[in-house]
Amino acid sequence: MPDDAVIAVKPEIASKAGINAERHRAMTEAAERDPEGFWRGEMRRIAWMKEPTRIKNTSFTGDVSIKWFEDGVLNASVSCLDRHVEAGNGDRVAIIWEGDDPNSDAKVTYREMHRRVCQLANAMRGMGVKKGDRVCIYLPMIVEAAVAMLACARVGAVHSIVFGGFSPDSLASRIQDSECSLLLTADEGRRGGRSVPLKKNADEALKTCPSVKHVIVARNTGGQVAMQDGRDVWWEEACGSQPETCEPERMNAEDPLFILYTSGSTGKPKGVLHTTAGYLVWASYTHELVFDYRPGEVYWCTADVGWVTGHTYIVYGPLANGATSLMFEGVPNYPGIDRFWQVVDKHKVNIFYTAPTAIRSLMREGEAPVKKHSRKSLRVLGSVGEPINPEAWMWYYRVVGDERCPIVDTWWQTETGGILISPLPGAVPQKPGSATLPLPGVKPALVDNDGKVLEGAAEGNLVITDSWPGQMRTVYGDHERFVQTYFSSFKGTYFTGDGARRDADGYYWITGRVDDVINVSGHRMGTAEVESALVAHPKVAEAAVVGMPHDLKGQGIYCYVTLVAGEEPSDALRKELVAWVRKEIGPIASPDAIQWAPGLPKTRSGKIMRRILRKIAANETDALGDTSTLADPAVVEDLVENRVAR
Ligand code: WTA
Question: 309 CB less than 6 Å from ligand 1?
Answer without folding.
Answer: yes
